[in-house]
Amino acid sequence: MKLLVTGGAGFIGSNFIHLILERRKDVEIVNLDKLTYAGNPANLKAIEDDKRYSFIKGDICDAEIVKQAMSGCDVVVNFAAETHVDRSIDDPQSFLKTNIFGVQVLLDEAKNTGVEKFIQISTDEVYGSIERGSFSEGDRLSPRSPYSASKAGGEMLAQAYFVTYNSPVIITRGVNSIGPYQYPEKAVPLFTTNAMEDKELPIYGDGLQVRDYMHVYDHCAALDLLLDKGQAGEIYNIGAENELPNIEMAKLILAELGKPQSLIKHVTDRPGHDRRYAVDTAKIRTLGWAPKYNAKQAIKAAIQWFVENRAWWEPIKSGAFREYYEQMYGKR
Ligand code: NAD
Ligand code: TYD
Questions:
Q1: Contacts of 188 (CB under 8 A, 6+ apart)
Q2: Does 91 qualify as catalytic in the annotation?
Q3: Contact predicate 28/3, CB 8 Å
């Protein structure tokens, strides 16, 4: 099987490439990544000399480079995206470009090439916020941030290509994933590395927003399963069904690291902040998938990775990230 993985130098994409190369002997992977601020070749250092792996630097919005990258591929797994909600609030347009237009370029080339499977990696955030209960795959989408709206747009196109051109599209809606190589703008790595540096943990608003924190290994294992068992035209929620309010997540991180709870600082809330995400995962579970980690285990494992891999995150936090952080949190 020859896979085109887009956005494979980011957090989930790089974990997926590691997992696939480990689990499958007879596989070839082409990674097409623009290397935005979130793409990091260091995430793939351990496998960069693997003969089954190759890297192309390029933009999924560029039809020529996409054609070159997809040539001879059986399967496309599209991780490439702008992914941070806070950045989408300040600059929605870059999100629309990659998360909608880029998806269309990939879908078009997949149609021309005749790939057997096209997995569009989407998010639970397309459903919007839910006070009680959980969303199933057939529920109405109600995205509430420019990020989730752009991801919903990408999905809509993918579904339209399935109906109109019979494109073999599968959509996945994963929950908040955490673990190795997650860029430290996201809450769990930000709080963990801030705590390690004795810096404050900026909690938006009252901190009672709820997320389902899933280990990235579980997310990638579900995607691996869908390579074999996912059906074209279907949507799959992927989640650990294990909820935690942000404030509890922050307290857990501080306790694990032996740092004082006084590092918690409530700051101005994110505009339009979704209160709670929750998805029903019965459908993917019937295919034989179940998460190995509950939320606390996933957070503890993520903390451990950041403790053991200072050399990975310290250059990020002391580089371009610093300016972003000062701008973002200076405002709050
Ligand atoms: P990330 O921000 O860590 O990585 C994104 C990657 O995409 C980077 O390597 C970046 O360089 C690349 N990229 C961005 N724009 C590109 C373009 N135009 N062309 C080519 N490459 C480009 O993101 P992540 O957290 O790994 O998320 C991966 C996917 O999973 C995204 O589609 C995201 O919406 C989805 N998702 C993420 C989560 C989560 O908790 N992180 C949960 C559910 C779904
Ligand atoms: P994040 O990791 O950005 O994921 P998402 O917004 O896509 O769910 O944030 C997770 C939760 O943590 C979310 O409710 C926002 C909150 N949060 C903070 O309280 N402080 C922060 O500095 C960040 C980045 C997030």
A1: 178, 182, 213, 249, 253, 299, 302
A2: no
A3: yes
Ligand 1 mutation target, pool 70, 83, 170, most atoms within 8 A of CB: 83
147 an active-site residue? yes
Largest distance between two CA atoms of the chain: 57
Of 147, 213, 217, 277, which is the active-site residue?
Answer: 147
Q: For residue 269, give the amino acid letter.
A: D
Q: Which ligand is nearest to the CA of 97?
A: 1
Dump pLDDT digits (tens) for 108-120: 999 999 999 999 9
Q: Is 199 left (phi over 0), alpha (psi -120 to 50) or beta?
A: beta
Read off the pTM.
Answer: 0.98
- Looking at the chain, which runs of residues are DSSP E strands? 2-6, 28-33, 53-57, 75-78, 117-123, 169-174, 177-178, 201-204, 210-212, 214-215, 235-238, 243-245, 264-267
Ligand closest to 144 (CA) is: 2
The dihedrals phi and psi of 172, each to the nearest 5 degrees, come to -115, 140
pLDDT digits (tens, 9 = 90+) for 292-318: 999 899 999 999 999 999 999 999 999
User: What's the sign of the alpha-carbon dihedral 304, 42, 250, 82?
Assistant: negative
**Torsions phi, psi for 200 (to 5 deg):** -65, 155
